[in-house]
Amino acid sequence: MAASTPLAATGDTIAQNLQNFVAPIAGILIGLVGLKYLFGENRSLAGFIGFVFLGACVFALIRFGSVILGALGGILKGILS
Q1: Residue (of 21, 30, 19, 20) closest to 56 by Cα position
Q2: Arithmetic mean of pLDDT, 45-64
Q3: 12-50 pLDDT, tens per residue?
């Protein structure tokens, strides 16, 4: 008898797939908003770079948020103790 394959995915698998799908889209959309500062009426290289940086930060926090926040928590615990 062949081994049965479970049809339902676990919550961890669904969450990882959702992070891998949403993180690049969110980063790109925020970066696209920054294009109005590069080509729009109020041209500002600083505004464009700021939005690209914000998009990269949002991407990193969605994709690696638990690792980043865990490391920051460890640093704060070390400083406060």
Answers
A1: 30
A2: 90
A3: 787 788 888 888 898 889 888 888 888 888 888 888 899
Lookup result for tokens 């109020």: 42
SS3 track for 29-57: HHHHHHHHHHHCCCCCHHHHHHHHHHHHH
Nearest to 58 by CA among 13, 28, 18: 28
Provide mean pLDDT across the span 45-60: 90
Whole-angstrom distance, CA of residue 58 vs CA of residue 27: 6
> Cα–Cα distance between 44 and 46 in angstroms, integer?
5
Q: Could you give the maximum distance between any two Cα atoms of the chain, in Å?
A: 69
